[in-house]
Design a protein that fits this description.
heterodimer, A: mainly beta, eight-stranded antiparallel β-sheet, B: mainly beta, 60s Ribosomal Protein L30, Chain: A, two-stranded antiparallel sheet, 48% strand
Chain lengths: 131, 186
């Protein structure tokens, strides 16, 4: 049974900036950046760049593809958390725009959002207090 | 813009015109945690207001979040297929919108090869009808409107962010590297 509200005391550790090259997946690329920098938990401070195509989950179980190239990521929100099985998982949502100026928001599907030209992300390490 | 084939969604891999760089992920850790909150007054042009203020603090690289307030003018581009066929996609001619409400902008402060400050900025904003629009913002042509804009700045001390030509994509982009001397931030 999940608690009604989970609370975790902690603080911000190091700040990491990363550039991601073409065809790296946005979601798993950010997970790999965390592994490379030794971050177990991280908060997205900001992110901007372009994708080949975008694929977003929207409410109601619909998967929404946005066709490029390119699709611009205008905002990126979310976090990376270490999982119980030792893996890292990034849960990221954001806002994208296509060549026609259509703005679409949703949750970035892992493995389905390859970088087009470049993606810049700034992460803040989240250091929970030892329980 | 191509129409995706029917069936389950399959991500596409893009082949760029130039030689493929071996390094695909370039993460660099910053030193310290300097942060500031800025308020940009009506009439300020985004690029000089931000770069001038941050240069005075000795900041050469930073991640910025901008929100609230209005934009008297926002000039922005959308990503279109390259009409000349030299690149896979490029930016279209700038679109100009007046009296927009800024929702959120994400930006990076870096430097050109000769050390001049540059800002890479993507934003969402609402037009006079409340429609959400957005794109790659031209900060030298974007002006704060009647309500001021708030900016949160996280310094990326210890990281050099240089704008340079990327042979793989044939585009100019910011690339990070670790700064050699700690003294450059002082």
């Amino acid at each position: 049974m999940t608690e009604p509200v989970q609370i975790e005391a902690g603080r911000i550790g190091k700040v990491v900036y990363a550039r991601m090259a073409p065809n790296e997946d946005l979601v798993q690329g950010i997970e790999k950046v965390c592994i490379a920098q030794g971050l177990r938990h991280a908060l997205v401070r900001s992110g901007l760049g372009s994708l080949v195509d975008a694929c977003l989950d929207v409410p109601g179980g619909t998967r929404h593809p946005v066709t490029g190239p390119a699709v611009e990521v205008l905002s990126l929100f979310g976090e990376v958390r270490a999982q119980g099985d030792g893996t890292l998982r990034a849960d990221l949502s954001g806002v994208v725009v296509d060549a026609a100026g259509r703005v679409v928001s949703g949750v970035f599907v892992a493995g389905a959002n390859p970088v087009f030209a470049t993606f810049e992300v700034t992460l803040e390490e989240w250091l929970p207090e030892a329980a | 813009m191509s129409v995706p084939p029917p069936g389950p969604y399959r991500p596409r891999t893009m082949v760029h015109p130039g030689p493929v760089a071996p390094l695909r992920l370039e993460p660099v850790a910053a030193r310290g945690q300097r942060q500031w909150r800025l308020v940009l007054a009506p009439g300020q042009v985004l690029l000089p207001a931000l770069t001038g203020t941050l240069a005075a603090q000795g900041v050469q690289a930073a991640a910025l979040a901008l929100f609230g307030g209005e934009l008297e003018t926002v000039a922005y581009c959308l990503p279109i297929p390259d009409p000349e066929g030299q690149l896979i996609a490029t930016y279209g001619a700038p679109l100009v919108l007046h009296h927009a409400a800024l929702l959120r902008a994400s930006a990076t402060l870096g430097q050109t090869a000769d050390g001049a400050p540059v800002i890479h900025c993507h934003a969402t904003f609402a037009d006079a009808q409340g429609q959400v629009r957005g794109g790659h913002v031209l900060p030298d042509r974007t002006v704060v409107g009647q309500r001021p804009i708030t900016v949160l700045v996280t310094a990326l001390d210890g990281i050099e962010l240089r704008l340079g030509f990327d042979p793989e994509t044939r585009l100019h982009m910011l690339r990070p590297s670790e700064k050699k001397s700690a003294k450059q931030d002082d």
